[in-house]
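This week, think about what follows.
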Amino acid sequence: MTPTKLIVLIAFLRDEDGNLQPAFEPREMPSEDRARHEARMMAATGKYAGVIAWSREAHPDVGEYGPPDVLFQHGEVPEME
């Protein structure tokens, strides 16, 4: 089966202890351009400690995922696996 490209956007807030927490569930985006645009808009609000948009090749039927390719990153985000 041919790989699928996953394109994801997520933002983070700091909790009361100062730890980064997801602001919402990761959002799958329809295109890399849209992911970059949305991430830039979110970063510009100043509401989030960090915002990241990334993509990766995936074979979800067998649980294989390629390395992430960061499309946009602003502020503090956890290390990607």
User: Anything to note?
Assistant: The mean pLDDT is 94. The radius of gyration is 13 Å. The beta strands are 4-14, 20-22, 27-28, 50-59, 64-65, 69-75.
